[in-house]
Amino acid sequence: MRAEHIVYFDIDKTIINTPEIKNGFVAALAQELGISETAIADLVTAYTTPLESSTDFDPEALAQHIVENLLAKQATSEKLLQLIFDVIAPVVVFEEVVQVLEILARMPDVRLGIFSEGVREWQEVKLKNSGLDVHFANEKLRGIYTRKLLSEVIAGLRPNSVVVDDKKQVVNAIAAQRLDVTAVWINRGDREPEAALHASVLVITSLRELPDLANELWSEYPD
Ligand SMILES: [Mg+2]
To answer: How many whole angstroms from 167 Cα to the centroid of ligand 1?
Structure first.
């Protein structure tokens, strides 16, 4: 049997430009509610600040928070939630993503997976509304976890796979726990320049580097 090699992708800031989603829905909500973008941004901050992790962000809870804190209750949370979902379109996908996914998917024995942390419904909406879900059709390889760095979650990554993530904390944890998995850090603007990388982590600045990297990694397994 030929070996399957999985390339797992993180979602936020790895394949989807998450800050652009926030900019989009702040503008859309401000327009809908007839209040300033600053006022909406303040409500978003008031909602996100107490969260234990930024990956706990749940648009449904945000919509509730906004409705409860508006002086004039002229909106329903369902309407606000729809506005938040509507801003996710292919435009928020980093420009190289689709081409790279198509190249990888054509490579023999390479399969595409997701290794994401967040609220499942929200992550699924991002994949679907961005059009990226078709590239990750295999449900078994679509991992969305509340906390993906739990050791039992990392233990579930397939052997000889690659994981691409924009967070040093994530690639470091995988490199430390899995000698048989290649952790790849994509530098999308280093937010923690002082934080060190585990010695075995590979660094890329564009996903375009992945097909060559995959070829090099797996050329020793021609069958
Ligand atoms: Mg990320």
So the answer is: 6
pTM: 0.93
Q: For 34, left (φ over 0), alpha (ψ -120 to 50), or beta?
A: left
Residue 206 tokens, joined: 């564009």
Edge-to-edge strand ranges of the sheet holding 142-145: 142-145, 110-117, 5-9, 162-165, 182-186, 202-204
Amino acid at 82: Q
Rounded distance from Cα 15 to ligand 1 centre (Å): 8
Q: How far, in Å, is the centroid of ligand 1 from the Cα of 170?
A: 9
Instruction: Summarize pLDDT for 12-63 with one digit per residue, the tens.
Output: 999 999 999 999 999 999 999 999 999 999 999 999 999 999 999 999 999 9
Distance 17 CA to ligand 1 centre (A): 9
Enter the CATH code of domain 5-16+91-218.
Answer: 3.40.50.1000
